[in-house]
């Protein structure tokens, strides 16, 4: 630790506050980018078929309502472009946070032997955020439950990857000398313990997935992509999570179903 750092008792707090703000902005950024309204996305020039110069010229010729009327035939196309570009859009909107000075602040905190303190603060900040996510998922009702869980997971996962990149130096130099988990693994563990294993979520998640799968087996239309995404999330969190939350309950229900069918067949024969 150099003299300047040693003589500044607020060195860590100053740098941590900058990093904490960046981490919160990263979480917020992916959430906000996903929930931009059509009107807000409408104003992003790269989504438009018209250049800014062309739009400004058209708006000088036509009243606003007429201008919007002229756009109406291509609005379905714009919606399609938005759905395709939203992933890239959120990356572009959030990337500047990652390229800011946060990497440098994280690097120097570890370099000056604040790794343990930095890690502790990171755990507290991420835990607080994940618990807020859990509350949001718990509050979702009916068919929106799986959709809310999937959306929150996607946002969280992208943010986690960015935070991992910012703290890469800590992962490489501080973590190996401790029993602490690397940032990425820490993030997955926090999600598993606070969201998936929440008392208000775990059983409900198992039952909802089973309900969707059984409906599909019965020939009903279900959102297969949503089921696939949620089950992939469980697999990403670890084989035991997938087995406990989905596979084991599903096999039990399947066994009971086959048993009931066999009894019916025996009685019929």
Q: What does this molecule look like?
A:
By secondary structure, the chain is mostly helical. It folds into 2 domains: 198 residues, 5 helical Cullin repeat like; 69 residues, 5 helical Cullin repeat like (Up-down Bundle). It is 79% helix and 0% strand. The chain is built from 14 helices and no strands.
Structural class: mainly alpha
The CATH topology of the largest domain? 5 helical Cullin repeat like
Q: Give the tally of β-strands.
A: 0
Round the Cα radius of gyration to an integer and report it: 25 Å
Overall domain count: 2
Protein name: Cullin-like protein
Domain Cullin N-terminal: 103-267
InterPro entries: Cullin, Cullin_N, Cullin_repeat-like_dom_sf
Family: Belongs to the cullin family.
Summarize this entry quickly:
This is Cullin-like protein. Residues 103-267 form the Cullin N-terminal domain. The protein has helices at 3-6, 11-34, 38-42, 52-61, 64-71, 75-98, 102-111, 115-139, 144-166, 168-173, 183-196, 202-217, 224-236, 239-268.
Give me the secondary-structure topology:
Layout (H helix, E strand, L loop, with lengths): L2 H4 L4 H24 L3 H5 L9 H10 L2 H8 L3 H24 L3 H10 L3 H25 L4 H23 L1 H6 L9 H14 L5 H16 L6 H13 L2 H30 L1
Highlighted features:
elongated; 5 helical Cullin repeat like; 14 helices; mainly alpha
